[in-house]
Amino acid sequence: MKRCKDYRRLGWNAVSQYWIKAILFNLLAMIITSGLTSTVIGFFILGPFNVGMYLFYLRSVRREDASYGSLFEPIIKGDFLRTIILHLLKVVYTILWTMLLFIPGIIKSYSYAMAEFIAIDNPNMSANDCITASRQLMRGKKFKLFLLDLSFIGWIILCIIPFVSLFVMPYMNATRAAFYNDIKSELRK
Question: pTM (2 decimals)?
Fold first, then answer.
């Protein structure tokens, strides 16, 4: 497993070659997801857009064609229902663990962190199986991902400046995609 700075470098390299495209994609994703989360029905259909967003950054890290259409690909390719169920299950499981105690909820959110990426690479896997696979894949790696997220604290603080998040979010998402891309070989199918 690489060090945090190695993952950040991979994430930076993935988006630095086309900042404008990454920023515009992030802006489009933010507009759609914030519009959806403002409604009850929208919250339920947020899953396909989350998977589409992760698809864009995973393709960026893999040096594949990452297009704006990635955001809508789960809907276009008929993966709508599975990605909705995936999103809802992650939310429900995390809430249930958080109701137990706050810290177990945080730990479980890191256990489920790779579920969308797994769903992308395994289109025939059910939503619940993606979450289970994420739990297995993240065994012994949750703290590493936590440290990776924590390494962005300076960037997150800078997000209080208007529009800085348009630059920071693509970098962070590409870094998480690089993390997944590095550990995915350990996934048991």
Answer: 0.91
